[in-house]
Amino acid sequence: MKEKIQEHKVPLIVGALVLLAVLAFMYKNKLASFFLYKGGLTNAQSATMHPTVTSNNSAIVDRDTLLQKGSKGKQVEELQQLLNVKHGSSGPSFYEYLTVDGIFGSATEAMLKKYTGRTSISINDLLKALK
After folding, report:
1. SS in 3 state form for the chain?
2. Are 50 and 107 in contact (CB under 8 A)?
3. What is the tens place of the pLDDT at every residue in 72-125?
4. pLDDT at 129
5. Is 63 in contact with 75 (CB distance < 8 Å)?
6. Of 2, 14, 16, 115, which sits with the fewest C-beta atoms within 10 Å of its C-beta?
7. Are 86 and 130 within 8 A, CB to CB?
8. CA quadruple 78, 122, 96, 90: dihedral positive or negative?
9. Among residues 98, 100, 88, which one has the least CA distance to residue 27?
10. Cα(46)–Cα(123) distance, rounded to whole angstroms?
């Protein structure tokens, strides 16, 4: 048995690497969301916080403000992060993740519409819609 394994070591290693590559491709969205999401909160933790305080504690972000194409700021960044998490947890997809830049553009609007059917939403409404 040991001799057979030694004899077929290279094909076994190549097969294992191909299998690993296929699995990584199939679950790329979950892997990417694991490494991309920097919010540090789960949806449940995030839902319990009504106003979000920014990292420098100088401004409070209202999570009930309606966000739509053209909106900018920390609220849009949070919206984009939440959409990316949802996108990653929805299974393999060929759609790209949103760039978390705080600008509500066409890509943000398209992903929001894909997961909620809406083109404008508040953070609190998004959290409810994504449950």
Report:
1. CHHHHHHCHHHHHHHHHHHHHHHHHHCHHHHHHHHHCCCCCCHHHHHHCCCEECCCCCCEECCCCCECCCCECHHHHHHHHHHHHHHHHCCCCCCCCCCCCCECCHHHHHHHHHHHCCCCECHHHHHHHCC
2. no
3. 999 999 999 999 888 887 776 666 888 899 999 999 999 999 889 999 999 989
4. 87
5. yes
6. 2
7. yes
8. positive
9. 88
10. 10
Distance of alpha carbon 23 from alpha carbon 105, whole angstroms: 32
The reported pTM is 0.55
What gap in Å lies between CA 118 and CA 122, rounded to an integer? 11
Question: In this model, does residue 50 exceed pLDDT 60?
Answer: no
Distance CA 34, CA 85 (A): 8
Rounded alpha-carbon distances, angstroms, from residue 104 to 88, 91, 99, 131:
19, 24, 10, 22
110 vs 124: CA distance, rounded Å: 19
- Please give the Cα distance from 104 to 69 (Å, whole number): 5
Residue 16 token pair: 């294992």
